[in-house]
């Protein structure tokens, strides 16, 4: 065979082996190359989250924050855990709403939402510390179980406004803890408020179908009345400037009033309804009129 033909056959064989080797190795190499060149993008959420404390049973207390404006509004649900589970559902629905429409938070505002201040109380009734629906909660409804924290303390009697070791809830005597802020849940809210200094706070409770102003030793702040009327008018709740059904000591709203922060209690009409449209209207009215109402 001529020499030039041998070299031609040798070249053809080498080329064939090269192509075959590349073809055999290609399936293993492709995923690695694709993964390196096209990483999955991280989802960009319109809020930040922060764990601000833990419950007695070491469940996280989390705050969701939208926007970064200079004025700060705080919304709080779940003070009374599973007993008022609808306040937790409402708070999570508000988080979902602003997640879908973050542009509705005015540029000069920061809106923070604590959906569940008493996660142990939620767990006592529902057996979960995660998000849940109203349908799931109705099936597990219990009387006063879940109102108190795991130390059997009424958290809304554990704040430093006229605090006493025992307080009242309806016709019952309830424990207010060993001292003001003795409970980790109350201390978590206190520390967050003192650090971030919100200009107004809205608490969701149930079931009185009204919005209440707050006061401590110095009476009701004028800005609290403006906040109460703005929310109540938009949400079509009755506005009540002073709670007098029975004596209350150590409530969170009163403590906020004592340090100059207007706070209101929004009482849903029942323990089972969220009244979404009403409360969305109330929150949006506060957002749109934050400066005008004197906060």
Please render the helix and strand layout as text.
Layout: H1 3-37, E1 47-54, E2 60-66, E3 71-76, H2 85-100, E4 109-114, H3 119-126, H4 134-138, E5 166-169, E6 172-175, H5 184-196, E7 200-206, E8 210-212, H6 222-235, E9 238-240, H7 252-258, E10 263-268, H8 276-288
Parallel strand pairs: 3-4, 3-7, 7-10, 8-9
Antiparallel strand pairs: 1-2, 2-4, 5-6, 8-10
Short description:
With 295 residues, the protein is of the alpha/beta class.
Features:
295 residues, alpha/beta, Aminopeptidase, 2 domains, eight-stranded mixed sheet, two-stranded antiparallel sheet, 8 helices, 10 strands, 38% helix, globular, disordered N terminus
Describe this structure in words.
With 295 residues, the protein is an alpha/beta fold. The chain has two domains: 40 residues; 242 residues, Zn peptidases (Aminopeptidase), CATH 3.40.630. It is 38% helix and 18% strand. It has eight helices and ten strands. The protein has an eight-stranded mixed beta sheet, with helices on both faces. A hairpin with a 5-residue loop joins β1 and β2. α6 crosses α8. The longest helix is centred in the N-terminal third of the chain and has 35 residues. The chain starts with a helix and ends in a 7-residue tail after the last helix. 42% of the residues are buried. The N terminus is likely disordered.
